[in-house]
Amino acid sequence: MLFSPARTLERPRPRLSASVGRFVRHLGWRQAPVIFAVAVLVSLVVIAVTIPWWTPYDPIGLAGRRLQPPSAAHWLGTDALGRDVLVRTLYGARYSLPIAVSVLIVAVGIGVAVGALAGFLGGIVDNVLMRLADITLAFPPVLLAMAIAASLGPGLVNTALALIIVWWPIYARLMRAQVLNVKKLDHVDAAIVGGVKPGRLLVKHIMPLCWSPILVNMTMDVGQVILLAAGLSFIGLGAQPPTPEWGQMIAEGASNFYCWWIALGPGMAIFLVSLSSNFLGDALRDVSDPRGRQ
């Protein structure tokens, strides 16, 4: 057999399963809290997408006697209008989860753009943009969201707009701090000496190193957005009856205080989503922080 140097020097390609396994171990998905968080969030997403195909009751239709306690026919009982509480709780994921995701996507997009420009350009641009963010951050988030939602009127769309106004300055501040830190690194100076244009310098050499804390904070804010949106619905500024939104369902349970099962389902759903988002955010923070991995 002839000797082939190219064949002897060729490195074997790693199998896809081995690469995925190393990635899973690196991210720490085997930790119990992370597995729990992923299972809860994935289950809620699947339920939100598929529930119209298999649910036995209509979320706004009559399902049984009014104020019926939990039973084999209705696992979480019925509310004051005879609607199944469990079905309405599961349908609530179709409203609460999209609100949280849409609010965070828009708020992160605005905040990242504003923070990156402020940190990169500096000077008067930085002062104007950051003073605008400071004005928003000067108000308590709950009170500011209540004021904006009350001025716009009740409804899910107005609730989302109020939450976007509350959340974008947080990411603007965070992105600006990251850009200021990355600007001091040596590879940025080398790119400037090499004649890289400012726009490409920001997008290609600075911003890719700034996303880690943004993603961690975004993950942990999912529960906070859902909780605040539910709070607005609870006081009548968010979703309106008969929408099966979690905060609005808790408000219905408050009006029937002794029928504890009405608020149990949506309350547990908000608790599980908030807890899962915090677990997942902690795991992402540990992965992105070398000190956390040590």
UniProtKB/TrEMBL annotation:
Transmembrane segments: 32-54, 99-125, 132-150, 156-174, 214-237, 257-275
Signal peptide (residue range): none
One Pfam family, short name: BPD_transp_1
Chief location bin: membrane
Positions of the ABC transmembrane type-1 domain: 93-281
Gene3D superfamilies on file: MetI-like
Subcellular location: Cell membrane
InterPro entries: BP-dependent_transpt_permease, MetI-like, MetI-like_sf
Keywords linked to the UniProt accession: Cell membrane, Membrane, Peptide transport, Protein transport, Transmembrane, Transmembrane helix, Transport
Topology versus the membrane: Multi-pass membrane protein
This protein's record includes keyword Cell membrane: yes
Family from the record: Belongs to the binding-protein-dependent transport system permease family.
Name of the protein described by the UniProt record: ABC transporter permease
